[in-house]
Design goal:
This protein is α/β, with parallel strands linked by helices. 27% of the residues lie in helices and 23% in strands. Strands 1, 2, 3, 4, 5, 6, 7, 8 and 9 form a nine-stranded mixed sheet that branches. β7 and β8 form a beta hairpin. The chain starts with 13 loop residues before the first helix and ends in a 14-residue tail after the last helix.
Amino acid sequence: TAVAAWEWGAYLGEEGLEKGIKVCTSSITRNPNRSTFGKAKAAANYLNSQMAKYEAIENGFEEALMLDENGFAAEGTGECLFIVRDGVLISPPNDNSLESITQATVLELAKDAGIPIERRNITRDEIYICDEAFFTGTAAEVTPINSLDHRVVGNGERGPMTEQLQSAYFDVVFGRNEKYKHYLTYI
């Protein structure tokens, strides 16, 4: 057995982890899960995501938000979406998005911190008016969203709940919280 390891760095930039990233709503929809094994993390399933990411970068954004075929927020190009409204953490169901270990970790951390959680559909305009928004993923970790479609999200910077969950997440990732060691594989 061989294990390769290398310095990864922040997928959406170190500054993005602190100050947030600019996101646009993509004109490309997320593949429905009923098409071509949409729940599989397979190379061919990422074509729409790759095209949405290119579209975002070409238009001066760091990332894209993909909507599902019904117009609800599905996910980023490789990340799960969370928003905060009135102290409630909200994330779309995984009907039309990939399930994520990072998403599950953040949901567990929020539950253990006593944060109210809702899993429901989110409209794009709800993201425009939410208090906070962030993406989660293996590469993205917990990255705040400071704007969507040139509209400032919340106060335009990492919000308090995002910061709380981001800090708790990094405590898990770096082995600083024994309670969540089941998420770690030591090599």
